[in-house]
């Protein structure tokens, strides 16, 4: 049961982790003033944000393990709507992608990272994880799949915790690499940042379309039971 619950959410967790925004944010924070402290606080905010969203979904869909319950039907419809929303976001992102040679202005929050304070680092982590519509959709879909795998109590907590850890692996990995690798790691992380910035549109389109199709398929399968 627990293995099935974890396995059903790994792809969704990786989709959360591979979003360009948190990767770019954590690299910039680590390179700035008090980078180690602010980077750790950003990672804390990120983990807490994902955890809060997951906990809220557990409270909302707690009875979804019963296939005949209203909560189960709601969870399936939620995944159908979520899947369509992710596909729609992917198509929208593709249509609005920068054309060759076109300069893209960085988002306002990215430009303000240089003077990041500890409290703002935590808040930014919270917002980029818990208030990001894509993350909310992916987290809700993952938690619905965990609940429908019929896990309870400690196994439920463990499955959600694995999702949060995997969904945070890019941020946590960057902080750990910076702590262990120092200047050499900073060079490698900046290369990752540049790649993410240059290819953010394509990365997001692929992630959104693939995950949207997966989530939609899971919802349709549940409704067909």
TrEMBL record:
InterPro entries on file: Gap/Sap
Residues annotated as transmembrane: 6-29, 41-62, 74-91, 156-180, 200-220
Keywords of this entry: Membrane, Transmembrane, Transmembrane helix
Name of protein: GAP family protein
